[in-house]
């Protein structure tokens, strides 16, 4: 599937329904939300080991390495904990903005206008997701299974996704052998 196909209403509906099924699977795995904070912590530790070499680093890279991510992560998880989010699917909407088929540097195209506001795209996705959840729960939904809560979740977890991929980019700019515009400013 191509990134631009994620906004196709038919595909988006199918993805929403399949995601609801995955979220309702009863499988013997750890369901505690530890991956995100542990991964951010791990990548941040790696960033803090990068020596600041002013002659070999761009200004943006120096600023990114010096940034106070520790406090941002604390603030982020304070906000996310208040959201009481049982599921996360904001990355579905973020991935719409990027096309990784560019053979030229930086090896992706960024389309910032593809992230939907509270509009028909998000509403369709959420409604299909909730419809499938209701069917899986014998036509019953929990107190957090409503459109407004999921709109809020999408927007809040978009912040988490942006911070996660910022940390990933800083690390990969220094460690990866793959030619990719990890630190290219897209705004």
From TrEMBL:
One Gene Ontology molecular-function label: ethanolamine kinase activity
InterPro entries listed in its UniProt record: Kinase-like_dom_sf (IPR011009)
Gene Ontology CC terms, in alphabetical order: cytoplasm
Gene Ontology biological-process entries: phosphatidylethanolamine biosynthetic process
Family designation: Belongs to the choline/ethanolamine kinase family.
Keywords annotated in UniProt: Kinase, Lipid biosynthesis, Lipid metabolism, Phospholipid biosynthesis, Phospholipid metabolism, Transferase
Protein's UniProt name: Choline/ethanolamine kinase-like protein
Domain of life: Eukaryota
């Amino acid at each position: 599937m191509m990134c631009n196909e994620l906004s196709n209403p038919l595909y988006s509906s199918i993805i929403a329904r399949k995601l609801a099924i995955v979220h309702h699977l009863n499988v013997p795995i750890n369901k505690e939300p530890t991956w995100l904070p542990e991964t951010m912590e791990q990548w941040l530790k790696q960033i803090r080991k990068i020596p600041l070499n002013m002659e070999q680093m761009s200004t943006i890279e120096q600023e990114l390495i010096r940034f106070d991510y520790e406090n941002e992560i604390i603030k982020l998880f304070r906000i996310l904990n208040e959201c009481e989010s049982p599921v996360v699917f904001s990355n579905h909407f973020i991935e719409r903005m990027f096309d990784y088929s560019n053979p030229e540097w930086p090896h992706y195209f960024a389309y910032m206008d593809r992230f939907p506001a509270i509009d028909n795209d998000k509403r369709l996705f959420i409604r299909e997701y909730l419809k499938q959840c209701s069917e899986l729960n014998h036509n019953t939904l929990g107190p957090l299974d409503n459109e407004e809560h999921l709109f809020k979740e999408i927007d809040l977890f978009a912040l988490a996704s942006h911070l996660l991929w910022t940390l990933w980019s800083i690390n990969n700019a220094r460690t990866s052998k793959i030619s990719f515009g990890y630190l290219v400013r897209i705004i």
